[in-house]
Amino acid sequence: MAADATDLSTEALARRRFLKRGSAGAVATAAAALQLPARAAENVAAAGAEAANLPPNVPEWTKSLGEPTASPYGMPSRFEKTAIRSLYPGLKEPMSAYSTSPLQELDGIITPNGLHYERHHAGVPQIDPALHRLMVHGLTRRSLIFTMDELRQFPSESHIYFMECSGNPSFLPPWGKTAAEVAGLVSGAQWTGVPLRAVLAHIGVKPGAKWVIAEGADGAGMTRSIPIEKCMDDVLLAYSQNGERLRPEQGYPLRLFVPGFEGNMSIKWLRRLEVADQPVYSREETAKYTDLMADGRSRKFSFVMECKSLITSPSGTHRLTRQGRHEMRGIAWSGHGKIKAVDVSVDGGNTWTPAKLDGPVLNKALTSFRAPFEWRGQELMLMSRAVDETGYVQPLLSELLKERGSVSFYHNNSVQPWRVAANGEVTNGRA
Predict the structure, then answer these.
(1) Is the pLDDT higher at 295 or at 307?
(2) 239 FRET partner, CA 20 to 30 A, in 249, 345, 359, 426?
(3) For the whole prediction, is pTM greater than 0.85?
(4) Who wins on pLDDT, 12 or 310?
(5) Residue 68 burial by CB count (10 A; 0-12/13-18/19+): exposed, middle or buried?
(6) Which of 257, 249, 267 lies closest to 189 in space, CA to CA?
(7) Whole-angstrom Cα distance, residue 409 to residue 170?
(8) Are 412 and 171 in contact (CB under 8 A)?
């Protein structure tokens, strides 16, 4: 028996050596035969070296110690180079700008803090929380100024919500290539903070109060008006995101979070709340963030982000490399509440089938969905259509344009198509 075992071990070792020599030899032969340029030859040689780490060989990382523990702050693997935020194509300066979440690289309903989309109007202020204050005044029994430590002494709540920019995306071309470029101004997170209603109850609200004016401490002095009913419902004075303190680009040390409403109303770096009897009609709710209609009028205070969905995989720039059964995956959300259903189509909306919703299905949060489909080398047009608990159905772009006209910019929640070509390449179906 011992002799047999030795023979088998020797045979296996010889086979490994043969595979190594065969792989290296094939690489060398291919490079010589094709007379590759120097850089291409180096790439081929590198591929041969990498093959040494593939089965049945023992990879190099199994033969040595790994990285030490207790790094100050954990980071993604250095091999994950595509899951990054990117400045939106065409933007030439980063101060009044926005970067998108790489939706095509993400899974689930929680966006990592470092990948949550950004939208800034005057850059990101660096604020010492010990010096930051929140002033609350107006139609109140008392006017008070709170430190961060004082705010954290109020009872807190944690909720998972989505946040979306109202310009995600616009109604006008050019259309983005990737899911991030198409609709990457949406993210999901668990937000922790003090319910605004608790602070308003603490200071007392006078009769006649109908609005709360929120102002940020950034250079733009971002200001929005929020109905008092919403403030007494689910608005948070948020100081943490996904279990840690807010990042500077997300409003550190304090931001307003207004669930289900357009993202710019969740004022970052919050410094002032004024209780008032009317809206302030700031620049960001008159000249900006209003929906221009075909007849020249504008929709006034279109706060809620309507029901929407997006297939993230496969999506633009992806490629199907095998024929057979595949799975489309994506996210759906609604500012009116929970997602009730998502239907998917592979033929451009001629027929629809129900997708499976992954739990948990939460109020005003991203919801994951998935559905199988077959690809046998034919052209497909993948689409998803969400329905929320109010019965609202996500519209086609043609239906939305018929209702609002082609000059609108904000609140485009239409169905997004992805074209699968006969060679498996996936591109934006609007292009």
Answers:
(1) 307
(2) 359
(3) yes
(4) 310
(5) exposed
(6) 257
(7) 5
(8) yes
